[in-house]
Write a structure and sequence with these properties.
Helix content is 33%, strand content 25%. The chain is of the alpha+beta class. It folds into two domains: 2-183 and 345-398, FAD/NAD(P)-binding domain, CATH 3.50.50.60; 188-337, no CATH class. It has a six-stranded antiparallel barrel. Helix 2 packs antiparallel against helix 5 (103-116). It binds flavin-adenine dinucleotide (FAD). Residues 6-12, 29-32, 37-39, 41-43, 47-48, 126-127, 153-155, 158-159, 163-164, 167-168, 343-344, 371-372, 382-385, 388 line the site of flavin-adenine dinucleotide.
Length: 401
């Protein structure tokens, strides 16, 4: 059984290892001059490769049921697989990293296993065309080959500098698949106002509520990075895919920030709390009182946007206005970061077009898909690599049966 795996990224390398172990004769074709180029960038170079909390709400797909079925079946096999190829890891609040804290360790354990198994790896070779007759005829910039089975592990079009430039979608389409609309995800949020320079550089914990057409549709909590264009950071990244889809459908998207996540009571109770504080801090301005729990740049922005003077006493300002800004500061979204800046893509080959047990195409027998080219994406926290490993394991084990 001659198998071609297109792409030596996360999912392709795992699929190739498993398929060769199961007796297939595997070739990998990779357009980069090395394997695992994107993996090296993950987790800020540390590679957050897994999450102990396999909460399925962290994964997204138009075919939710099928996605859940796929992840459930192999999720317990991911860590044993990495153990079997020599990786030692650590668990930091459920986020898994290689113990070395370096993504290159993950790349290398995969690379050494590929070498030990004598899998043929063609680097700096780009697949341009796939045709299916009896066998698959695959054309590259260097030649033409025949294979019994083909795995498309070409990634999405996020971060194209690492090789995944969207070509996989084109090849899948030419072979008869449809593609669920693609959006950039896990990327920054650009606001529509022009005051963002005033809070640039601040990092502060907040609760973010995504409001689409006036209706709250998702909430995230964590550290927000305030930037000169809007906001960034993990919790805002996790909203970006939904926002990209909403904006594309001409919906109004607003991210409302609760800048005092530590206060759990109602607005009335918060007012009472601040009344008490102002009695304790009798000769303080209200700006000074707020600086006890909020970065001074954010305090300035709050007062400016509320049209109030921070040098006044607490008793002399419009308390409701300030409390509203502190607990639901609105950012009207203009756009999200583009594919160059996104970590992943939402959308891709629909799961209903593949068999959930093997990830084999229902349209072209012998054709398989793994990883991000499929319509599955995850939140930050190791879920995207999680799906890459799970799908690679499934295909690698099924392809030679
Ligand atoms: C900056 C950044 C940080 C990230 N951090 C994390 C993280 O910490 N945790 C996490 O879970 N996820 C993270 N991700 C997401 C994760 O890296 C991807 O979801 C994952 O790599 C997808 O795996 P894949 O196998 O589908 O595709 P890829 O890893 O993208 O691999 C696809 C491969 O196919 C090759 N290829 C494409 N077209 C061709 C062609 N025509 N011919 C030959 N080869 C081709 C590409 O060169 C590439 O090597 C991050 C992503 C980025 C960009």
């Amino acid at each position: 059984m001659k198998v071609l795996v297109i792409g030596a990224g996360a999912s392709g390398m795992v699929a190739a290892i498993k398929a060769q172990e199961n007796g297939a004769e595997v070739t990998i074709i990779e357009k980069n001059n090395k394997v695992g180029k994107k993996l090296l960038l993950t987790g800020n170079g540390r590679c957050n490769f897994w999450n102990a909390n396999q909460d399925l709400t962290k994964y997204h797909s138009q075919d939710r049921d099928i996605m859940e079925e796929i992840i459930e079946v192999r999720k317990d096999d991911v860590l044993p697989f990495f153990k079997s190829i020599g990786l030692v890891w650590k668990n930091v609040n459920d986020y898994y990293y290689p113990f070395s804290n370096q993504a290159v360790s993950v790349v290398n354990v995969l690379k050494w296993k590929i070498e030990k198994l004598n899998i043929a790896v063609h680097l700096e070779e780009e697949v341009l065309k796939i045709e299916k007759n009896q066998k698959f005829r695959v054309e590259t910039n260097k030649g033409s080959y025949l294979f019994d089975k083909v795995v498309i592990a070409m990634g999405s079009k996020a971060n194209p500098f690492t090789g995944s430039d969207g070509k996989g979608y084109e090849l899948a389409k030419k072979l008869g698949h449809t593609i669920n609309k693609i959006y950039p995800s896990l990327t920054m949020i650009y606001g529509a106002d022009n005051f963002y320079k005033d809070w640039e550089g601040v990092r502060s914990e907040a609760i973010l509520t995504l409001i689409e057409e006036g209706k709250a549709i998702k909430e995230e909590q964590g550290e927000v990075q305030f930037t000169n264009y809007g906001i960034s950071g993990i919790c805002s990244f996790n909203l970006s895919g939904l926002i990209a889809g909403g904006l594309d459908n001409k919906k109004e998207e607003v991210v409302s920030l609760n800048l005092v996540p530590w206060f759990k009571g109602s607005n009335q109770e918060f007012k009472e709390y601040l009344d008490e504080q102002s009695k304790e801090l009798a000769n303080y301005t209200c700006g000074e009182i707020l600086e006890g729990f909020l970065n001074y740049k954010l305090v300035k922005v709050i007062f400016k946007r509320a049209g109030l003077n921070s040098n006044k006493n607490w008793e002399d300002i419009n308390k409701d206005k300030i409390i509203a800004k502190l607990r639901s500061f609105p950012i009207k979204v203009q756009k999200v970061g583009d594919y160059e800046k996104a970590q992943v893509c939402r959308g891709g080959v629909p799961l209903r077009e593949i068999s959930p047990k093997t990830l084999e195409s229902k349209i072209v027998p012998g054709l398989y898909f793994t990883g991000e080219i499929l319509d599955v994406d995850g939140d930050c926290g190791g879920y995207n690599l999680g799906f890459a490993w799970v799908s690679g394991l499934i295909v690698g084990e099924a392809i030679n049966d």
